[in-house]
Amino acid sequence: xxxxxxxxxxxxxxxxxxxxxxxxxxxxxxxxxxxxxxxxxxxxxxxxxxxxxxxxxxxxxxxxxxxxxxxxxxxxxxxxxxxxxxxxxxxxxxxxxxxxxxxxxxxxxxxxxxxxxxxxxxxxxxxxxxxxxxxxxxxxxxxxxxxxxxxxxxxxxxxxxxxxxxxxxxxxxxxxxxxxxxxxxxxxxxxxxxxxxxxxxxxxxxxxxxxxxxxxxxxxxxxxxxxxxxxxxxxxxxxxxxxxxxxxxxxxxxxxxxxxxxxxxxxxxxxxxxxxxxxxxxxxxxxxxxxxxxxxxxxxxxxxxxxxxxxx
Length: 312
What we know:
By secondary structure, the chain is α/β, with parallel strands linked by helices. It contains 13 helices and 13 strands.
């Protein structure tokens, strides 16, 4: 597990050459990479969402594609299409940008629901079906989507089924005064993103993902995780709690976070760290709770305080 931690450390150091003061955010992104899950980055414009996604892609020896979502983007613009090649006299399939190992989907909430739904199969099944033919996507496969919550005109909010496909939902947030000053210095003469080179191969990423599944979870810690997720379904301020898919996501991310720390076993603290970013976007709050402007993160914090932590 120490070898895995060292390899991840190389990616962390590479991304940190571009991002200033985002160590915790980078670690969450690396957890998603180890779980081969997808990430939704949501925050106001200019907080580094796209830069973070591009820095991770540049640090991995994987194929990369970027999709700028607008209302006129069609599903075939993502998945590809079959066209008639007059030279050879038959139909051929032209792959779309989804046939890449790392896909950055910028401003996903600007795409129409029909186009957003084209991502569902790709994100969940890692396949694309066009004209009745199902084609597998390359592995590892990671979708990094960004959206701006403050823009309402010309946007189409992601439905719950689409949100549930994202392993994590992250909010970069504004930098501190010192961090923002460091950003100005770092980008003063050139963009460090242009100098990034891959520090991991796609084969190494797949090997790391397999090793993460070997991280041990004791029955007591597993029961603690399940009780935590089930508590979201009975909380009076939550209309719809996390599904079993949320339980599985929390389980896998806790394993990855433990591996990130060089451990071969999961601690309850690993679950506590990952719960807000794994479960927060999977909860549907009651109307009264939304009127009081309470956030799902606050409710998850309450649940974490209520569920007894297993002790040896």
